[in-house]
Amino acid sequence: MAIRRRDYHPSLSKQQKLDLFRDCTVVHPHLKKAYENFRDAIDNPGGASLIFLFGPTGVGKTTLLRQITKVMVEENWHLITTDSDYLPVATAEARAPESGSFDWKGYYQSVLVALTELPVRTSWTRSRSQLKKSKRYQKSIGSSSSHLSTLREQVIVNMRHRRLIAFLTDEAQRFSRDGK
Questions:
Q1: How many structural domains comprise the chain?
Q2: Structural domain span for residue 69
Q3: Is the pTM of this model over 0.85?
Q4: Rounded to whole angstroms, how far apart are CA atoms 17 and 20?
């Protein structure tokens, strides 16, 4: 979001001003071009199943993922509100391992949780009725005793069930053996 003069009001509280500033994204031409290219890759995958977004720390990769998520939810809002099983986009972070290799079980569990929630939390999402969460779907999130292969299969089934257009993983470089 870019701050426009009309968005700023002197009567805003200090917290509201901080929130407005925190939610502000200055649109740099390179970030805009990356957004357009990334969006084009999602909208016209050409048979690709993976799209990689990479760059140095601090260039705006996470900001770009958040913006893509927000726009995709807004564009599909009518379907989301009329079909509680539909979720066009979801996102999860590949958390850094506490020690050793990547924690796939923890990642799959976080993906399953992400598939039960709306990815953007703004005032207009609060009015939506709660997603249908059947007991079977709730159980699919898995417990700490779930096998990795079971969790992986549950992720695949739930992604198909939600009819995702895109699933975005932040910090995906952590999937590699050395996490770099």
A1: 1
A2: 61-175
A3: no
A4: 5
